[in-house]
Amino acid sequence: MQLVRGSLGKYLRIAEISLTNRVVYLADHFTSSMFLILILFIFSQLWKTVLGGGQIAGLNATGMLWYMVFTEVITLSTPATHRTVSNDVKSGDLAYKLSRPYSYILYYLAVHCGEFLVRLLTNLLVGAAFAYLTMGSLAVEWDKLGWMILGLALAVAINFLMNFSLALLAFWLEDNRPFFWIFNKLVFIFGGLFVPVEAYPAGLRFISYLLPLRYGVSAPARLIVNFEYGFLWQMLGGQIVWALLLSLLVSALFRKGVRQVHVHGG
Amino acid sequence: MFMEVKRTVRFLLQYFSANLQSAMEYRGAFISQIIFMFLNNLMLLFFWWVLFTKIDSLNGWSFQQILLLYALAAGAYAFQALFFAGSFSLSSTIAEGRLDFYLTMPRPVLFHVLVSRSSAAAWGDLAFALTIFIMAASPSPSMMLGFLALCLAGGFVSTSFSVLAHSLSFWLGNSVGLASQLTEALLSFSLYPEGIFSAVTRLVLYTLIPAGFVSYLPVRILSEFTLAHAALMAFFALSISLLARFVFYRGLQRYESGNLVVINAAD
User: Fold this and answer.
1) Between chains, do A201 and B53 touch, taking CB under 8 Å as contact?
2) Is A75 within 8 Å of A217 (Cβ atoms)?
3) Is residue A264 part of a domain?
4) With contacts defined as CB-CB under 8 Å, which chain B residues touch A175?
């Protein structure tokens, strides 16, 4: 028990250091939120024109914009940890990190979480302020906040694991960037970045429900905007299954990849 | 005058050819970049496809016009990225004192900086623009020429806007972030139909952030050609190009060399 607590404390400390490092660049984070305002402005105009008083997937124009606030906040707040991991593998820095007294994967998960939290707060502040001023408030069911935070936390883990597994392809591929380009666009489609996947034609909706992307972006955003217990259980079930499967995949890829590392000293 | 134009075009093509050969040195990476960029753009259309399964028209804009919008925006971007990719990094070139190299050369500084780089992935944008245009309009040869001319004019507008945004570095110091946000805004607005925007926003989009001249007006010209619209397009493209040139050279008077020893090589 003592060992687990000590080990957990180590990663919490790493997350805290990562968070503190990002707080130094708080102004930078607010500046980069300008893109969020731009895209929210465009979509506030779009949904007002398209929906008027109507709905898509059970959401009216205000609901659609708030949905987008949360999907964009999740996506924009996800740090580019995969880039650091790819660089570690390509540059050989991985060899130094392997010898340190921590798990390489958990170290980056902790760094990822710390940075995500700072970005989340700045982006959410900017996005929510914009949505409130242009479209009005969102009726959040505050007593369900715990469930929403749990869904968001699992989404962070799933997004980290998906990115990490792609980054580990650097063990075998010279340039893994094209996979990230396509991955980002798959997030756009099957992650439901602009529209809830519930608005898709049946076939595509079915595929979205099977893939992990929806559980990392669309589902937690939809839950916050329109809380339903049935939706919550389906989402949590999918998130837990995908978090486990992706954890197994990442650890298998990492073990296989590390076997190829040759350390020559220096 | 004619000889000067000829020399300039030859200079542009020499740089273009050198950049292309350099990109093609890694043939596999070059082809994969083109394919991935094509797919990347194609996926952007997915949102509109889903939306148009729910609605018939968006304030007068049909799905076919959205396709034209994307073809023209991608075409304009492709022209900028293929011929004038130096415009994307102009502010860092200014802020880091890397203009010294161009100042010592017997060529117009701005033109030289702009043509010095070319993006290989932009071939994917060009392929996307042509494919989508052919699918959406089944064009005649003359219409295809008109499309290319509009992409070229749009490319001049977006390049000039980039030069204006990045030239802020002469006055503000390192303003890479601001310049990239402004150029990002131009690109983002040019990918959404003007029908969704209010009158005030449209005014901005035909003046301060001229997305209207990158894609909206060109779509109108292709859909319902009028000489007045074509003349307005040509006039605006020429005017903003001259304005960008004027602002850049005014800013250049404030440029201070960093006395850096710089090797001018492609990234």
Assistant:
1) yes
2) yes
3) no
4) 29
Structural domain contains residue B260: no
Q: For residue B177, which amino acid is it?
A: G
Domain hosting A73: range is 2-258
| Residue pair B192/B207 in contact by the 8 Å Cβ criterion | no
Distance to chain B for A113, nearest Cα, Å: 25
Q: Which one of B36, B184, B195 has the shortest CB-CB distance to A49?
A: B195
Count of domains observed in chain A: 1
Closest chain B residue to the Cα of A204, Cα to Cα: B50
How many residues appear in chain A?
266
Does residue B36 sit within a domain? yes
CB B32 within 8 A of CB B93: no
Question: Nearest residue on chain B to A190, judged by CA atoms?
Answer: B46
The answer to whether position A161 is within a domain reads yes
Q: Where in the sequence is the domain holding B222, given as residue range(s)? A: 2-252
Q: Is residue A263 part of a domain?
A: no
Question: Across the interface, which of B33, B177, B196 has its CB nearest the CB of A45?
Answer: B196
ipTM given for this complex: 0.84
Is B25 a domain residue?
yes
Which residue type, as a one-letter code, is found at position B108?
P
Give the pLDDT confidence of A27-77 residue by residue, as tens digits: 777 777 888 999 999 999 999 998 888 888 889 999 999 999 999 999 999
